[in-house]
Design brief:
- The chain has eleven helices and twelve strands.
- Helix 9 crosses helix 11 (about 400-420).
- Strand 4 (about 165-170), helix 7 (about 185-200) and strand 5 form a beta-alpha-beta unit.
- The radius of gyration is 21 Å and the shape is globular.
- Helix content is about 40%, strand content about 15%.
- Strands 1-7-6-5-4-2-3 form a seven-stranded mixed sheet, sandwiched between helices. A five-stranded antiparallel sheet has the order 8-9-12-11-10, with helices on one face.
- The chain is of the alpha/beta class.
- The longest helix has about 30 residues, at about 275-305.
- The two termini are about 25 Å apart.
Length: about 425
């Protein structure tokens, strides 16, 4: 791993500048690890729980314990945690279809959701694909203010307009492909408290990329449901597939009826030997998330000093694992992703190229040197090919390896920039 003297000097400077932040990340990881350990003891985790089940999966003690642990650690009443949820979008789909009925209103209060979820919601016209719109669910949104804060006044006006027809108030914790601040769990709790004071709606949070970044989750602050993917934060880089839904007893029950069927819910579901990896991943998650946060802060420092616009800044609190870098050109974005790929442990010889990714309106370039396909808690970077050509970087199973990937991305970016 050879880098220019300029980058090596930056790396040394970053270690000094980020010392206090790294200590803070470690402190949060210690607190979250303590909660996980206490919960593992509470539910008497044992070797027998790792064996898994087949067929209907009735009486799977490992599955039942793991779901109780998720609920306990996340400050929720109940949870569904399943290896056969293929990604975060499916987990969100299960949750939304579980709660919403014809003529209900889904109100997003953090602007437009991820592109993939937009297709689940559907547009104003029924297109026959099976979206929420096809089933008569209406959608509206409240955009964030220019400074990225919540527009409480407009939320109130929407609640006054729709009344009890609003059944879900939806919050996206992370920025997605937007250039806006990530919400902390506590900030989401404030939104939930406000929403519950003026509406009977469920407050549902897309919690992807945020788990274990704070020392509590949105459900601990009053959200009715949080949803995420196991190949992001809570899988700890060990779970190879899966998703979770956690929240109030009623909300999780309704979601479980969409996961399986009405009347069966979460009482069945074979685990097929996946329990061990899901338990182990959740145990490791607080530490791994801290490593990813360190890698993101390091990236922020390096690219800030190289003159690029970054979000968030290296010296602020972090509430998810995502770091953005505005490259300003398509060539710059592609160079960044090439560098991440080259600096990865897996598929380092591959050159990422933009492509028409399903669910996205623009071509997307993705770099991922991951042991598990699509795992965002491992080293990865992606971004749509549209101005300002922002790279969305996330992950890092170890800070040491993450540092090399970032330096590799910086090296490639500088080479591309110097061509001009």
């Amino acid at each position: 791993m050879e880098f220019s003297k300029e980058l090596l000097k930056l790396a040394d400077e970053a270690k000094v500048a980020l010392k206090d932040k790294f200590e803070e990340f470690d402190r949060i990881a210690e607190e979250n690890t303590a909660r996980v350990l206490v919960s593992f003891r509470k539910y008497r985790v044992s070797e027998a729980m790792f064996a898994g089940s087949t067929g209907y999966g009735y009486g799977d003690i490992g599955r039942e314990a793991l779901e109780s642990i998720y609920a306990d650690v996340f400050g929720a009443e109940d949870a569904v945690v399943r290896h056969n949820i293929v990604n975060g979008t499916q987990a969100l789909t299960i949750g939304l279809f579980g709660l919403l009925r014809p003529n209900d209103v889904l109100l997003s209060v953090t602007g437009a959701p991820y592109d993939t979820l937009a297709e689940v919601i559907g547009d104003k016209y029924k297109n026959g694909d099976g979206s929420l719109a096809d089933f008569g669910v209406k959608y509206d949104q409240v955009d964030l203010k220019e400074d990225g804060s919540i527009d409480y006044e407009t939320i109130k006006s929407k609640v006054d307009e729709y009344g009890d027809s609003i059944k879900v108030i939806f919050i996206q914790r992370s920025k997605g492909y937007q250039n806006r601040p990530t919400l902390s769990a506590k900030e989401i709790g404030e939104i939930a408290k406000f929403a519950h004071s003026i509406s009977k709606a469920y407050v549902v949070v897309d919690n992807c990329y945020g788990e274990f970044c704070d020392n509590a989750e949105p459900t601990a602050y009053g959200a009715d449901m949080i949803i995420g993917s196991l190949i992001k934060n809570p899988g700890g880089g060990i779970a190879e597939t899966g998703g979770y839904i956690a929240g109030t007893k009623k909300a999780v029950e309704l979601a479980s009826y969409r996961l399986t069927s009405v009347g069966i819910g979460k009482e069945c579901g074979a685990t097929l030997g996946e329990n061990r990896k899901m338990f182990k991943g959740f145990f490791m998650a607080p530490h791994i998330v801290a490593q990813a946060k360190k890698t993101a802060a390091f990236a922020s420092y390096v690219f800030d000093k190289l003159g690029y616009e970054v979000e968030p800044s290296y010296d602020v609190d972090r509430h998810d694992i995502i770091q953005t870098v505005k490259l300003k050109t398509a060539e710059g974005l592609c160079a960044f992703c090439r560098g991440i790929q080259f600096g990865s442990a897996v598929d380092s010889y591959v050159t990422p190229e933009p492509w028409d990714m399903p669910g996205y309106s623009d071509q997307v370039i993705m770099a991922a040197g991951t042991f598990t396909s699509g795992s965002s808690i491992e080293i990865s970077a992606d971004g749509p090919l549209k101005y300002p050509y922002t790279a969305f970087f996330q992950g890092g199973l170890t800070f040491e390896s993450g540092k090399y990937a970032i330096l590799s991305a910086a090296e490639e970016t500088l080479k591309e920039k110097n061509k001009k």
